[in-house]
TrEMBL record:
Keyword line: Signal
Record carries keyword Signal: yes
Highest taxon listed in the record's lineage: Bacteria
Organism field: Pseudomonas pohangensis
UniProt-listed Pfam families: BON (PF04972)
Every BON domain range: 30-101, 110-177
InterPro entries cross-referenced by the UniProt entry: BON_dom, Lipoprotein_DolP, Transpt-assoc_nodulatn_dom_bac
Protein's name according to its UniProt entry: Osmotically-inducible protein OsmY, contains BON domain
Key word Transmembrane present: no
Residues making up the signal peptide according to the UniProt record: 1-19
Amino acid sequence: MTRNSLLVAALASTLLLGACSNRSMGNKIDDQFLDPDVNSAISDAAPDLSSPTSHIVTSSYNGVILIAGQTPRAELKDRAGQAARSVRGVRTVHNELQIMEPTSLLVRSNDALITSKIKTLMLADSTVPSARIKVITENGVVFLMGIVTRQEGASATAVVSGAAGVQKVVKLFEYTN
């Protein structure tokens, strides 16, 4: 294949995958800029939120922000949530920080493995719109974000619940029906 043919094929694939989602390209770009802005706001809210005493994971989908991870004090959890809410473009914040010591690298590696397994299972299930669902795993807890119907959300939850290593499933879906 020539270079131009490869470029056209890549562009067509991108457009087809983008068409599978019910978010506009603008929403997707906004989310890409929200994550660093939210991370920066959280880091600026308190020195302990960006130190090794805390492990903060943020994710955005359609202006909905998930804050997960661990921090040593409830006051820091509250500050992180307030900081995220202050960022322009944020519609909703789900503050799921746990008050505890940060997880180990082994736990984080296991979380990445769980996420990969779940994405594979969702791709294999025709009832799950995997292109419209974001999967985040933190300390064995799986968070699902996306814009889906109630049936699609239930199908995704059933698939995730059956995956090895999942301790809990938290649905942060926006429903279309």
